[in-house]
Amino acid sequence: DRAGTLADDLEAEVLRGTDLAGGSEREQWETFGSPARDAAAVLRALSRLKPSSDANRVLGARVLRSLSHGTTQEAAFGLLALSEIVSATRAATGDTRVFLGNEEVTEARSLGAGIVEVRLPLARVAGHPGTLRLESSGLSPSAFAVRGRYRRPVNVAAGVGAPPSVDTGAAWHLAHGPNVFRLYTDAKGKPVDLAAVPLGSLVRVALLVDFPADSAESVPDDRIRYLAMTDRLPAGFEPVDPDLRTVASVPGLANEHPFAAILKGGGAASHVELRSDRVHVYFDDRGQRASAATYVMRATTRGTFVAAPAEAELMYEPQSLGRSEAVSVTVQ
Description:
By secondary structure, the chain is an alpha+beta fold. Helix content is 25%, strand content 27%. The protein has a 6-stranded antiparallel β-sheet, with no helix packed on it. A 4-stranded antiparallel β-sheet has the order 7-8-13-10, with no helix packed on it. Strands 2-1-5 form a 3-stranded antiparallel β-sheet, with no helix packed on it.
C-alpha cells in the first residue's frame, strides 16, 4: 500500500543520512517549516509504521540534538515525536517506584506516553532530610526530572512608596539573571508619590533590565538576545492601551525621565501584551546590555495595594530569572 511504500522510502533515506528538509529555504520560512520539524514528523510516522526499525534510533538521536538549539515550535514537534518512542518502549521499561527514605511515595498519576508524575508534599521534606530513591523493574534506562512549586510571600519594606517612587534595586537574580528596576512616575515622567495617588490619574511604569557584566559575558549572543519581562499590576489599577481610539491620548515621555535615554534611544520591545492584571514585554533582538520598556496604568479603585515584583528572564537560557522589589501603592 502507499503508506507502506512511503515508510520504506523514508526508512531508506534516514539510514542513508539524507537531509529530510522539504522545499527551498524560502519555502521553509514562509510555511514556518524547518529540517528539525520535518525530521520529527518523519519520526512520528516511522515509530507507528515501523516501530522496530533502526531508522527510529538514528532519527530519534537527530531530533534529540535539535532540542538544544531549535525554536519553540521545533522543540514541541520534537517532544511529541520522542514521546511516541517512549510509549512504544514502555513495556520494556518496567514499573518505576519512588521512595523517600524507606517509605514509598504513592501519590502518582499517569501523564501518558509512559510518563508518571509523583507528587511529594514539601511538608514531608522540610526539616526531614532523606534520600529520594527510584527503583525500576525494567531493563531500559529511565529518565527523571524534579520540579518544586511553592509560594513565596511578598515582603514590602517599610516606607516603600515614598518619593522617589523607585524600587530600591534588584531584589535578587539567579546566576545568569538580570537586575530588574521599576520606576513609577506620572504620564510625562515626573515623580509621583505612591503613598497618595489620586483616583483616576495616570501612572507611568518604566522597567529597566540590566545584565551584570559577568552574566552578559557568560551567555552566548544567540541566547542573550531574547528577553521576556512580566509586571503584575497592583489591584486598583488597570492598564491603558493608547492604540485604542476610545482612550484619551497619553502624554509623551519627557526627557527628564530617568530612563528616557534608553527608552528613546532605540531597541524598542518586539511585542507588548496588555492584560487586565499584568503586562508582558518581549525583546527578540536586544542590541545592548540594558533594555527598557514602559506602559501606562490608571488608578481606578481607592485603597492600599501591593505591586508584586517585576520579573525578567532570558527566554532560552536557564538560571536567568531576576526580580525587582515589591512596592506598596495607595490610591486616594
